[in-house]
Specification:
The structure holds three protein chains of three kinds. By secondary structure, chain A is an all-alpha fold. Chain A has helices at residues 36-45, 48-65, 102-138, 140-154, 158-169, 175-202, 205-213, 217-253, 265-272, 281-308; strands at residues 11-12, 17-18. Chain A has one domain (36-312): MetI-like fold (Orthogonal Bundle). Chain C has ten helices and twelve strands. Chain C has a six-stranded mixed beta sheet, sandwiched between helices. The chains are: A mainly alpha, B alpha/beta, C alpha/beta. Chains in contact: A-B, A-C, B-C.
Chain lengths: 313, 347, 350
Amino acid sequence: MSDRDRERLFTSSPAPVVASFEELEAEPIIRREGSLYADAWRQLRRRPMFIISGILIVILAVMAIWPGLFTRADPRACDLADSLLRPSSQHWFGTDVQGCDYYARTIWGARVSITIGVLVTACATLIAVLLGSVAGYYGGIVDTLIARLTDIWFAIPTILGGIVILRSIFSTRGLLQVSLVLIVLGWPTMLRLVRSAVMATKEMDYVDAARALGVRNIRIIRRHILPNAVAPVIVYATITVGVIISAEAALSFLGVGLQLPAISWGLMISVAQNRILTAPHLLLFPGAFLSVTVFSFILMGDALRDALDPRLR
Amino acid sequence: MATTLSRDAVAGRPVDPAAPLLAVEDLHVEFRIDAGTVRAVNGLSYTLRRGETVAILGESGSGKSVSAQAVMGIIDSPPGFVTGGSVRFRGVELLDLPEAERRRVRGDRIAMIFQDALTALNPVFPVGWQIAEMFRMHRGLPRKEAREKAIELMERVKIPSARTRVGSYPHEFSGGMRQRVMIAMALSLDPEILIADEPTTALDVTVQAQIMSLLAELQQQTGMGLILITHDLGVVAEVAEEVVVMYAGREVEKGPSLPVYHQPAHPYTMGLMDSLPRRDVHTERLQPIKGSPPDLLAIPSGCPFRPRCPYTREICTREEPPLAAVTPERVSACHFWEEVSRERAGA
Amino acid sequence: MSAPAPEPIRNGEVVLRVEHLVKYFPITRGIVFKRQIGTVKAVDDVSFELHAGETLGLVGESGCGKTTTARTILRLEKATSGHAWYRGRDIFTLSGGEMRELRREIQVIFQDPYASLNPRMTVGDIIGEGWRVHPGVMPKSRRRARIHELLELVGLNPDHINRYPHQFSGGQRQRIGVARALALEPKIVICDEPVSALDVSVQAQVVNLLEDLQDELGLSYLFIAHDLSVVRHICDRIAVMYLGKIVETGDEYQVYDNTAHPYTTALLSAVPIPDPAARHLGRRILLEGDVPSPADPPSGCRFRTRCWKAQGICSEAEPELIDRGQGHPVACHFAQVEFDPARRGSSQPG
């Protein structure tokens, strides 16, 4: 029978039983107008998790694009005489070893993090969607090749691999180089997700119906498979932004990511390690900002997952 | 399958020897969800006696499954709530019992089997282990003995090579065999009532026949009452003494199956009979019921069948029809059941 | 090989002929290099003819191969061997482009109303998608109007053209599926369990719709189902399948009232009659055990492991599907019309 997907809504206890949602899925008076995305949006708008994370992300994005809105100080205007000052009304977050305004540096650090997070995720997702949908839809030898290649790639541990590649290949490590490495290490997981979502969607009757109409494969992938397979990818991509931000910070912290004079929370934390007891504010502020940033993306991903869950349609 | 437990009490309360096995009265169940309140059951009553089979017949949105879950007490609350009525098992009111007591009745005295055995059985444990668990948990039997009882049960439900298959996993069985496993589990504690929720809907028709025949045999042996929830009019006609026709969460017709089938007293029942093709006779043109079953979030006012009824009148929009006694044994929830029946008999 | 100009269909013409169709699925093991360790013989030498304006029913239980037969004819699966001719053209040898042309003529309706419509497309887009592939069928200017017509034709409100599938009930979605199939003006519609997933009261609506459309548009149906009562009602002829083979064919009176194959007899006796008075009439035949695996079907006659008539010859020689004196083809060495006291309908002699 067909209705298993929709039966998950009401579960009952304690026996391993699922109450029958089929009972409730009767003739619809039109309760919801519009597409499934419109529905999802309407649902999301009311969820606190979405609202909170949404606001945070918007603030962070604005911070990344127009840091000047948050601070007038120049993060590179450093006066050694002001080294390691505690937070005060003049320097809200204090100053660092060079005497730079720490608040300004922290604000400017957002740009690097958000940029890398979004750039890497976007590129990795693009690669994953292209290769993954081809592998999942066509199957056969193409799929075997791509899937096995992905498996091999997948075995490379992210941070360790990142360290090795960044150290050995690049002499200067700027935004682009670090992004490139993270993209190269990040697409396998995304691809597996896309591939399995595509493989599941491929089995749906409406895909067969399209084939029976004579619709060509490209259009089937574009119009029938991807729109329906994309929901888990969106969720995962959102969470990935947070993960990438965290990964860049880790690499910079280890000294193999961005180099000075780049402003990155990871770098700032790295410098702060030795002075945790004497100048804790050096660690506190970038650490807090990093955590909140990563957290908001993961929270957003969770909120999206609930809203885009096709089983609740 | 002898147990030495006394059956004179239910959760500590004495049973009423004169009471029927199960008496459901004016049951109401609703689900409170974001979109509103789903009124899943709106006034259902029936009685089940020892050895009897009562069929609850309905389509999607009729509330039949939910009503059975209310009897078992397995509705997740929230969002589901039993908002009225009574469910008496041998005279003892189940809805008043605390959950701990309810759990003792569940499985032990009243058992349930479901449509999809694959999701109802735990995929990571062997079948024999799951059946034996009933004995280990509820009767405190040691493992070896419980396992022997499990094999005995598997043979009783006619699973071939039970001794060798006791260690197999659910996915290694066919649909029909899995259903037998579920029946074995349900019967393990010698329940007095078995509720079967669409037990054969997902099965092929030849397997359906086997399972229904097995249930009939087991019922004869144990004298248990059977509540059969289904949408299949053929299955109901084959096994049920009493049929309760549900629509939009309420009973619209109830009575012994022969007269209900031959002289239906409600337009919905009539519509169902007329819309069926038969395998034993040629049917010229089917007479469908127009429209679709209603959305339980917005049940039509007055008589819920009104939008689809060919005999509807003005009063049907305003007033919900009461349950009229067609005969001492039959009821119908239609304002004009007499007229409608006469018209149909004449036509 | 260019498509011949479509001729009007003559009465009684054979629009679809399937001959010795075989579809095996390999069972493989291994991750990188797949080894074949077995074969699922889903369809094993099936032949039949569909005439113009006729409804041919393909019935059987799960695993009998009826759906695979349909999918193979539609080239949603690649046939292992055999032929399928649409009005004389060999479907399996057509090129990609030619096959695409042919799809206009043979369309399909699926079983699951919830899975057969793309939830992200509007009803109008779903129905009109075929015209993107076959623009010649309907000029762009006429398309919207035609969608309205089609919606009305299947009994839906044309104003709902911009709604999404989840806003409709199961029966209504099935109608949308019918409209989609009809948009290309096919000659043959393969109906794969079109009413199985619908409520009883709604099934009759869709059955009537299909019948009316057939009369109005001169369609031929290949009707695949497991519900024998519906099949008796709508089909002109029926082919009963078991484990990849056809065991009996004939019209409704031959197959239902003058049943000659033991499997068909058992199958029919298992279908409950919605009449309590019929309860104790008729011999209910209970088959033992399960259907054998299609990966390892019994030798000779595939039904012999569950058949009460089985004898030595049944394991040695596969019975052919021929008329053995009953008036319709039966694949059984001991074919015999059984008397069934439950049968109350008019039984015309086979």
